[in-house]
Amino acid sequence: MTHPWVQSVQTAFSSADNPKIAAPMSAYMKNHFPFHGITSQHRTELLKDLLSKENLPEHNDLPLICRQLWQLPQREYTYAALTLMTKFHKKLTPTDIPWLIDLVTQKSWWDSVDTLAGNVLSTLVNRLPDTLWPNFEPLISADNFWLNRTAIIVQLKMRDKTDTDFLTAAILPHMHNKEFFLRKAIGWSLRQYARHNPQWVIDFVQQHQEQLSGLSKREALKRL
In whole angstroms, what is the distance from residue 153 CA to residue 170 CA? Predict the structure, then answer.
């Protein structure tokens, strides 16, 4: 049975369907997903009441709601799920990690994975650093590059508390990989940490300059 909160989102989004905008939005995402044609600003307006304190669902319903939104065809529902997750970021616990990681592997593209890994999961790890190794180390060697990318960027919110041993472990196996999204993730994670420990990043890039791709090195040193 569809959760009432999901039904409310469907009603709001369906009424705002705009095929003229939907086509270019889908093209921007390489036509991986259909769209209703709702701009980011309009989507925020449509969700405003549903995301108010009195209309927020229970935390226990969050996995069901997000999974149901994820399965709906138009990409705006995925964005609605991600927005809802951010409303609960202070309440997320280690028990939420498995279903969040599972969503990384479903309808995967940079827009969903980067928000899940670099924002939702990264915020949780920042609050609960003890969850890092047991939950995300298996992703380093997973046979799914989106999971690999998740392991690489899951510390984006850690700032000066970044576990450099984990960051190194997440990067090293994928330095030779030609997948763009892994090369970009390596550079992104290093660039983010460089804001807090530039010398470590400089030393890391110099130590592995023969193995790192040009893209990864450029991204890592962009702001240094």
Answer: 9
